[in-house]
Every structure is written in C-alpha cells, then in structure tokens.
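Structure ticket #2291
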Amino acid sequence: MLGAGSTHSSTKNAVLINNPYLVNLCAFIFSMIATLLVVKLAQIKFFSKEAIVLSGVALGSLFTAATTLIQYFAQDYQVAAAVFWSFGDLGRVSYKEVFIMAVVTTLAFIYFTFTGGITMHLNPLMMLQSHWALM
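Resolution: structure written out below.
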C-alpha cells in the first residue's frame, strides 16, 4: 500500500520496509475502524455490556481467521514474511523509535492520569446500563 512494504522471492530479507511510519499509521487507522464497528454495532442493536465485549472478541477472531487463511494459501517465503510481521523484530529498532514511543506513551499516561473524567467513558463494563444507554 503506497510503498509501505513489499515481499521478495528470496527468504533473506523477505520484507522490505520502505516507510515504517505509514505501516504504523495504517495499523492504527484500521484498528480504530474495527473499534468503531463494535461501537456502532452496540449502538444499533442495543448490546449489553457483555455483548459488546463478545462482539470485539468475535471481530478479533474473524481477523485472525482471515490472516490464517492468507497464510494457508501463501508461498513459504510469504509465510515467513507474515510471521515476521506478526512477531516483530527488535533488531531493527533504533533509539529514534524508542524515543518516539517513550514520548507518546508518557503523554498518553499523563493525559489519562490527570483527566479522570474521560477514562470512565473508555470502560463500558464499569458503567451502569442506564448510563451506557444514554450515550
């Protein structure tokens, strides 16, 4: 997708990352789409708190099944690339990426620690059913 990654026919360097920030951005965007899908299902069908969690688990299982299906029909070097992507590689991380992650994590921690009012909206299992229905 837009030069984010490509596969080669050799087992050495099976995945070439041209733009790792684009890969991370796409992963974030599509995870938010999956989250919004669960929220919209909950709003349309008036799910209970337990059904919201179960629909998220079901959606995760659907994505895992799709990934497994892709791996089943892939060539051996493509399966190696998929395993590489799913487990990650800490050997290629530089201090620049560690610094970026530290800054983002620290800012998120400070935000969610000192704005206690918003964290209640992030956990529907701790809310009352009547409060959830009003949202």
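Closing remark: Residues 5-9 have pLDDT under 50 and may be disordered.
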